[in-house]
Design a protein that fits this description.
Blueprint: E1 18-24, E2 28-35, E3 40-45, E4 49-56, E5 58-63, E6 66-71, E7 74-78, E8 83-88, E9 94-101, H1 108-115, E10 120-122, H2 125-135, H3 143-168, H4 176-187, H5 195-202, H6 206-215, H7 221-239, H8 244-250, H9 256-267, H10 271-284
Antiparallel strand pairs: 1-2, 2-9, 3-8, 4-7, 4-9, 5-6, 5-8, 7-10
Length: 293
């Protein structure tokens, strides 16, 4: 089971500073955690789409070095490739729930939707219900229940995204250059070696493109470029028999070493480990491959 979810990181903190319940497998995870005052976690590289919901207390979340306050009743959708650090309330205990699921569980259109969801937003009641269903599942469910729970985790993130988009529908449209950059990246990230090439294609300067990404809380264009390339490489590693050198060329990496480093940043595993896990799934759990495409 992979874990990107917040846990204590400060050596001086007592072991009882956090009590947590986890449910899931290597595709999805549901969590409920209780932090004593002053809990921290990170920094770490986000490997999955992860919704963090704060039920009590408060937190400050640093995303790529940029602080973002999180209050009771609010949530934030973490994106693969982000560098995240959590600082929980220093005066009160904090309780959060949430779920995360691997990028391969979503199709291209769904990933585009999730990538556009940034910032802090209120949590709809339906999301609380879905997370509750996940946490109520057995600690060691069978394969069929695992598949059902992965679908619930997926529905949880998509329902949150839908609520955010509905609330923002009356807001101002994104800058035309930003919209063009996102379309180009989602269309074919391998067409660009650097974010500078993307800025040139959009007809703006590097600094202006970075500003537009920061204003829309999307991190940096370089980070998104390499994340999308890495996600494409992960899909090829899992679904083809191509060598790492061939995959590196087709997904826009300079060499297999560069590819391996980026893949490990977003998955926590080397390409060889990904293939070994995928091979094991194909032999022992028929029908679950759809979650890793």
């Amino acid at each position: 089971m992979f874990m990107d979810l917040p846990r204590p990181n400060a050596p001086q903190m007592p072991k009882k500073s956090v009590r947590a319940i986890f449910r899931g497998d290597d595709r999805y995870t549901f969590v409920r955690a209780v932090y004593e005052p002053g809990g921290t976690f990170g920094p770490h590289w986000q490997r999955a789409y992860q919704l963090v919901v704060l039920l009590e207390g408060s937190a400050e979340v640093e995303i790529d070095g940029r602080p973002l306050p999180l209050s009771k009743g609010e949530g934030i959708l973490m994106q693969p490739g982000w560098r995240v650090m959590y600082h929980f309330d220093r005066e009160r205990r904090s309780i959060h729930t949430g779920c995360q699921i691997v990028p391969g569980a979503f199709d291209r259109g769904e990933r585009r939707t999730l990538t556009g969801i940034t910032g802090v937003h209120p949590i709809p009641a339906a999301v609380h219900v879905l997370i509750g269903e996940g946490l109520a599942s057995p600690a060691a469910p069978g394969d069929h229940l695992h598949a059902a729970m992965a679908l619930i985790a997926k529905a949880c993130l998509l329902r949150y995204a839908s609520q955010v988009l509905e609330a923002a529908s009356a807001g101002p449209p994104p800058h035309p250059a930003l919209r063009r950059a996102l379309e180009l990246l989602e269309g074919d990230p391998t067409a660009f070696r650097t974010a500078s090439e993307l800025a040139l294609r959009c007809g703006i300067s590097d600094s202006r493109l970075r500003q537009l990404f920061q204003e829309s809380e999307r991190g940096s264009p370089s980070l998104m470029l390499w994340r999308l390339k890495a996600e494409q490489a992960v899909r090829m590693i899992r679904s083809t028999g191509l060598t790492l050198g061939e995959i590196a060329i087709q997904s826009g990496f300079a060499n297999p070493f560069h590819l391996s480093r980026r893949v490990k940043q977003i998955t926590g595993m080397s390409p060889r480990e990904l293939r070994r896990i995928e091979s094991g799934k194909a032999r022992t759990v028929p029908g679950t491959r759809a979650f890793s495409r």
